[in-house]
C-alpha cells in the first residue's frame, strides 16, 4: 500500500489525475484552478490549451498532478473521466451544497464506482465569521447522507489550496475493480493520420500515461464511446511532464502548442527522440471478430450413401401393393389411389381432419400478424409510438398532450399487470390452440425440466459461449496477478498507433471531449448474452417496459440495446417481467460484448428532448446464454355450476376443440385449489373440471402456459450525446415534485 501511494504522482509513476466536478452552478471551477496554480515559486505550471485543465509539477515535493475539469451537465464526460481519475475534487456551494444537476451527477458516480475524492468549498469569504460558521455547520449536516465521514476543505487562499493538495496526495486510494485489471489511459495528446484509401478512416496516434496494468501491443484497445480497435505499434516519446528540470527546458517549444490539435504528437523536433517500444505481431494479435458467421448449410441433410439407397429400395419393394387403376395412370398417381375397403372406413375421419387442418391453417395465416403483435407484448408498439409522436404535430403543446396520453396508457398497463399478473383474454376470433401454439404447460414451474438448447433462435448462431465461464474468468485473473506480461509498464508516457479509426474520434477530441482508452482482456470483443442484476433508481418512477430501447453504461463500455426483464432466483428457470419493478431486484438480459465481472452498470432512458434519465443501477451478474427466461400466460375462467369436488367452468375457452387440446394442463385457482379438466360440455367452451376441494363462487380458475423468450438483437455501440441536464437551484424541490 505504501509503495502504491508513493508511486502515484512521483517521478516513476503516472501523474496524479484529479478531476474537478462542480456540483452547483455557482461553484466556479476556474477560480479553483487559479488558486491551485498559484503555489510557491518551486512549482512549474504547464498549460494545456482549450481543455480547461493544467499540469502542476512540484520538484521540491517530488509530486506531479494533472487537473481536468468536467462539466456536470454532460454526464458522459463526467463518467468517462471518473473511469480513469485517481481522485475526484467535488466543488460545493457554501449555501446549498449541490443543485439538481449535481444530485443527478452524484447518483451516476456512486452507481458507477467512486474513486478517492475530496470536498472543496470555494467562496464564502465575504460572509461575517459568525455566519460563516453557521453556514459551514449547515452544509456539513446536509452532506452527511451522501458523504458520512467526509471533511470539507475551504478554498479561498493559497494556504488552503496547499492543504488540499497535501490531502489529495496522502489520502488512501480507492480501487475500482473493472479498471485495476485492465491497462487504461487518458489521452494527453493526439494526432490523426488519414489512410491511403480514405480520409475518413486512418491511424490515430494517442499519447498518455499508462495506468492500471502493463499495456500489450497485441491486445485490443477500446476507445470509450467509439468501439474496439487494433494497435500497430507503441512508441516512447519524451515525457512532457517530467520532474527533471533539464527535460522541461528542452520542451519549452512544445509547451506553447495546443494539446487538442492534430500536430501535437508529430512535431519535427521530437521525431528524432521517439523510440519504438514494440510492434504488433500478426500471429499473436487479437482478432476484431465479434460475431460467428453462421453457415446456412450446416445441419442440412447430406447426399445418401450406397447402403442407404439400397435399404430404401428394399423397403419400397416390401411395401408394394397391387391396385386396379385406369389406363394412362402414372406410378405417382397410382400411389394416391386407395382401395374401396379402406375408403369406406377412413373417408369420414380424413375429411373431418383435413377440413379442420385447412381451417386452422387459413385462420393461422390470416391472424399471424395480429397474434405476433399480441404475443410479443406491447414493447414494440411503444417504440413505434415514440418515433411517430415527434412528427405528428408541429405545435409544442399538442406534442406534450400526445406524450401525456402515451404515458397514461403505460401507467394503465403497468397497473393492470400489477393487479392481474400475466393474465390475458382468450381471443374469440382465433382458436386458442392456434393463438397459443408456441406455449406449453408445466406440472411445476420450479421442478419441471426445460432443455436450454431447445428451439434456439437464429441469433444464437452468431454469439460465443464459454464451456465454463467462471473457470475462464478465474484463470484470466490469476494470469494477470502472477504472470508478467511484456509491454509498456505503468507510469510510462507512450504513443499508441491505433489502426482503422474513424475521423470522428479526432473531431470529438478537438471539441474538448476526453479521449479514454481501455485495453481488452481476451474474448472481450466477442458477442454473447449478458445478464445484469439491477434495481430501480428511486429518483425515477416512470413505467419502463421490456424490449424498450435503453442506454447501458457497463464498466468501460456504453451501448444501446432492448433488454428483457426477469426475476432473480436460484432456480434454473426465471419468469419474465413485463415492467421494471420498483420494489425488487431484477435481471436484465441483452446481447452485448463479453465483459468479465465485476463491472457496474447504469441504465438510462432517453427522453424525447434528448436528455438521459437514470432509471436503474446494478452490476454484471453473468455471461450465460443458457439462462432460461420464461414468459407466462394465464388464461382465466369462472365457475358456472359448483358441486362437491367438481365444477362447470366457462369463459376460459370458446370451442370444444380448444378444451380437448388443453385438457392435459393442470388447473389452479386464486384461492389455492388444484384440479384438471375432465371433459368438455357442449360446443361453446364449457368444461367439467375436478378439483381437490369445493370451489367458492367468487373464485377464479386459472390455466398457466409457458414459452421461452429471447432478447432482440438491437445492440448499437454508438450512443448519442445527451442534452445537458437542466439545473435548478437546489436538489430538494426537484425531488419533492418528482415524488408528487
TrEMBL record:
Q: What is its main location?
A: nucleus
Bms1-type G domain residues: 14-174
For this protein, the record's SMART domains field holds:
AARP2CN (SM00785), DUF663 (SM01362)
State the Gene Ontology BP annotations: endonucleolytic cleavage of tricistronic rRNA transcript (SSU-rRNA, 5.8S rRNA, LSU-rRNA); maturation of SSU-rRNA from tricistronic rRNA transcript (SSU-rRNA, 5.8S rRNA, LSU-rRNA)
Sequence segments annotated as region (Disordered):
248-314, 334-386
Listed Acidic residues bias regions? 339-362, 370-384
- Comp. bias regions, Basic and acidic residues: 273-284
UniProt entry keywords in alphabetical sequence: Nucleus, Ribosome biogenesis
GO molecular-function terms, A-Z: GTP binding; GTPase activity; U3 snoRNA binding
Where in the cell is the protein located?
Nucleus, Nucleolus
The record ties this protein, via Pfam families, to: AARP2CN, RIBIOP_C, Tsr1_G-like
Task: One GO cellular component term, please give it.
Answer: preribosome, small subunit precursor
Query: Which function does this protein serve?
Result: Required during maturation of the 40S ribosomal subunit in the nucleolus.
Write out the similarity annotation. Belongs to the TRAFAC class translation factor GTPase superfamily. Bms1-like GTPase family. TSR1 subfamily.
Q: What is this protein called?
A: Pre-rRNA-processing protein TSR1 homolog
Q: Which organism is it from?
A: Chloroceryle aenea (American pygmy kingfisher)
Q: Gene symbol?
A: Tsr1
Amino acid at each position: 500500500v505504501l509503495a502504491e501511494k508513493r508511486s502515484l504522482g512521483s517521478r516513476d509513476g503516472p501523474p496524479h489525475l484529479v478531476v474537478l466536478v462542480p456540483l452547483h452552478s455557482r461553484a466556479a471551477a476556474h477560480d479553483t484552478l487559479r488558486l491551485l496554480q498559484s503555489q510557491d515559486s518551486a512549482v512549474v505550471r504547464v498549460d494545456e490549451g482549450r481543455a480547461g485543465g493544467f499540469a502542476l509539477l512540484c520538484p521540491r515535493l517530488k509530486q506531479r498532478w494533472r487537473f481536468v475539469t468536467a462539466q456536470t451537465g454532460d454526464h458522459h464526460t463526467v463518467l468517462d473521466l471518473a473511469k480513469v481519475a485517481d481522485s475526484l475534487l467535488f466543488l460545493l456551494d457554501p449555501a446549498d451544497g449541490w443543485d439538481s444537476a449535481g444530485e443527478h451527477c452524484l447518483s451516476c458516480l456512486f452507481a458507477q464506482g467512486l474513486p478517492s475524492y475530496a470536498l472543496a468549498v470555494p467562496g464564502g469569504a465575504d460572509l461575517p465569521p459568525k455566519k460563516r460558521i453557521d453556514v459551514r455547520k449547515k452544509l456539513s449536516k446536509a452532506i452527511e447522507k451522501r458523504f458520512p465521514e467526509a471533511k470539507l476543505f475551504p478554498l479561498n487562499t493559497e494556504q488552503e489550496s496547499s492543504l488540499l493538495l497535501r490531502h489529495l496526495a496522502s489520502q488512501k486510494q480507492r480501487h475500482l475493480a473493472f479498471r485495476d485489471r485492465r491497462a487504461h489511459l487518458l489521452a494527453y495528446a493526439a494526432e490523426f493520420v488519414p489512410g491511403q484509401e480514405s480520409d475518413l478512416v486512418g491511424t490515430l496516434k494517442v499519447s498518455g500515461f499508462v495506468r492500471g496494468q502493463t499495456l500489450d501491443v497485441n491486445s485490443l484497445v477500446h476507445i470509450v464511446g467509439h468501439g474496439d480497435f487494433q494497435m500497430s505499434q507503441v512508441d516512447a516519446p519524451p515525457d512532457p511532464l517530467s520532474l527533471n528540470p533539464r527535460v522541461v527546458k528542452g520542451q519549452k517549444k512544445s509547451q506553447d502548442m495546443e494539446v487538442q490539435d492534430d500536430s501535437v504528437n508529430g512535431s519535427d523536433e521530437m521525431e528524432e527522440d521517439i523510440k519504438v517500444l514494440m510492434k504488433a505481431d500478426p500471429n499473436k494479435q487479437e482478432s476484431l471478430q465479434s460475431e460467428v458467421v453462421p453457415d446456412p448449410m450446416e445441419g442440412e441433410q447430406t447426399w445418401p450413401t450406397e447402403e442407404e439407397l439400397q435399404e430404401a429400395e428394399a423397403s419400397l419393394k416390401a411395401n408394394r401393393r397391387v391396385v386396379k387403376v385406369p389406363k394412362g395412370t402414372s406410378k405417382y398417381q397410382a400411389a394416391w389411389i386407395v382401395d374401396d375397403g379402406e375408403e369406406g372406413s377412413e373417408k369420414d375421419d380424413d375429411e373431418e381432419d383435413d377440413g379442420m387442418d385447412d381451417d386452422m391453417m387459413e385462420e393461422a395465416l390470416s391472424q399471424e400478424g395480429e397474434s405476433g403483435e399480441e404475443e410479443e407484448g406491447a414493447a414494440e408498439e411503444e417504440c413505434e409510438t415514440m418515433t411517430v409522436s415527434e412528427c405528428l404535430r408541429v405545435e409544442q403543446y399538442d406534442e406534450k398532450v400526445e406524450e401525456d396520453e402515451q404515458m397514461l396508457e403505460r401507467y394503465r398497463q403497468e397497473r393492470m399487470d400489477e393487479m392481474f399478473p400475466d393474465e390475458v383474454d382468450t381471443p374469440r376470433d382465433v382458436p386458442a390452440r392456434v393463438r397459443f401454439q408456441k406455449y406449453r404447460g408445466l406440472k411445476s414451474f420450479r421442478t419441471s425440466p426445460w432443455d436450454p438448447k431447445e428451439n434456439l433462435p437464429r441469433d444464437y448462431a452468431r454469439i460465443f459461449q464459454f464451456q465454463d465461464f467462471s473457470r475462464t474468468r478465474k484463470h484470466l485473473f490469476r494470469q494477470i496477478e502472477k504472470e508478467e506480461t511484456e509491454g509498456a509498464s505503468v507510469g510510462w508516457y507512450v504513443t499508441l498507433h491505433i489502426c482503422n479509426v474513424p475521423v470522428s474520434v479526432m473531431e470529438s477530441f478537438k471539441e474538448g471531449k476526453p479521449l479514454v482508452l481501455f485495453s481488452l482482456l481476451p474474448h472481450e470483443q466477442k458477442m454473447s448474452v449478458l445478464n445484469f442484476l439491477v434495481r430501480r433508481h428511486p429518483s425515477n418512477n416512470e413505467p419502463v417496459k421490456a424490449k424498450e430501447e435503453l442506454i447501458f453504461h457497463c464498466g468501460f463500455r456504453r451501448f444501446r440495446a432492448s433488454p428483457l426483464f426477469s426475476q432473480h432466483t436460484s432456480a434454473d428457470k426465471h419468469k419474465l417481467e413485463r415492467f421494471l419493478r420498483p420494489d425488487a431486484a431484477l435481471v436484465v438480459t441483452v446481447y452485448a460484448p463479453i465483459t468479465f465481472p465485476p463491472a457496474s452498470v447504469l441504465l438510462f432512458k432517453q427522453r424525447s428532448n434528448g436528455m438521459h434519465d437514470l432509471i436503474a443501477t446494478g452490476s454484471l451478474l453473468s455471461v450465460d446464454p443458457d439462462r432460461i427466461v420464461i414468459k407466462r400466460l394465464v388464461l382465466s375462467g369462472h365457475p358456472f355450476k359448483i358441486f362437491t369436488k367438481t365444477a362447470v367452468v366457462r369463459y376460459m375457452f370458446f370451442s370444444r376443440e380448444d378444451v380437448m387440446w388443453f385438457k392435459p394442463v393442470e388447473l389452479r385457482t386464486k384461492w389455492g385449489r388444484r384440479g384438471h379438466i375432465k371433459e368438455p360440455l357442449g360446443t361453446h367452451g364449457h368444461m367439467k373440471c375436478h378439483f381437490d376441494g369445493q370451489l367458492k363462487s367468487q373464485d377464479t380458475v386459472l390455466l398457466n402456459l409457458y414459452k421461452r423468450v429471447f432478447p432482440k438483437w438491437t445492440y448499437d455501440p454508438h450512443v448519442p450525446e445527451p442534452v445537458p441536464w437542466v439545473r435548478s437551484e437546489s436538489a430538494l424541490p426537484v425531488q419533492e415534485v418528482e415524488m408528487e
